[in-house]
Amino acid sequence: MIIITGATGALNGSTVEHLLKTLPASEIAIVARDAAKAVHFAERGVEVRMGDYADPASLPAAFAGADQLLLVSASDPHDDAVALHRNAVEAAVVAGVGRVLYTSHQGAAPDTPFGPGRDHAATERLLAESGLAWTSLRNGFYAHSLTWFLGDWRETGVITVPADGPVSWTAREDAAEAAAHILLSDGAYNGPTTLTAPAAPTFADVAAIAADVAGRPVETVVLGDDNWVAHQVSSGQPEFMARFMLDMYRAAAGGFFAGTDPLLGKVLSREPASVRDLLTAQLATTGH
Fold first, then answer.
1. What is residue 27's three-state secondary structure?
2. Between 239-253 and 225-234, two packed helices, what is the crossing angle to 10 degrees?
3. pTM of the model as a whole
4. Which residues lie across from 3 on neighbouring strands?
5. Tens digit of pLDDT for each residue in 19-62?
6. Which listed residue, 66, 77, 196, 262, has the most CB atoms within 10 A of its CB?
7. Alpha helices (runs of H) in 54-202, residue ranges in sequence order
8. Domains plus CATH for the chain?
9. Average pLDDT, the chain
10. pLDDT at position 286 over 90
């Protein structure tokens, strides 16, 4: 039995869809806080179990019988993600799960400026100390978020950043499909497993790609930390979120997202999507 949390979200929901192409629904169960959001899976024969990382007592029964358990990482920056993940890992131990797979991040490190990267590193330590077999899916930075980081470049021709550095922008759809392949590999991957696109362009590189795709000049302007935060706040962004994302840029400048690995392409048996693919699709959708 493969049990998957977070399947009402885009990442693990897509992984379930890929698994259903190979496995009967009876071999898959999903854990959700709100069963109503999982009706589309229940109608296809997938068992839906109630469970919430914030309610530890709900988890052992939700994870029972799992040969493999795919844990999605907590995504709310206001939450104590490590505490929530600890609840899930401890419940997996109680439930006797055969293997835990965890959606981590390529930049996972205790010294990264980016808070989620520190959370992922701490969670990997929890898994390593749990006695469970585990696989940490160190996905590259999800490429769909790049559209937010780039702002209104299509109108202004300018990409404004506080600092620049390389990022292995990786399609969430590719990461989801790879997770399904790894689940179906029956334990072929152990410990940290890096899944990234083959390139890690800087924002200046992204601007050059955008210019080529759009057929007009696009430049990167580096404002520095304080000026960038002030610019974001004046544009309507809450200061908390602006400073949260500022740490992503600092981590990029520090090289935490610079590494690439050919494994994703090997797992998918095809070339992963690129930044050029993303920007081309964006322009095709918007028409400019």
1. helix
2. 140
3. 0.95
4. 29, 69
5. 999 999 999 999 999 989 999 999 999 999 999 999 999 999 99
6. 196
7. 59-63, 81-95, 115-130, 146-150, 153-156, 172-184
8. 2-139+172-195 (3.40.50.720)
9. 95
10. no
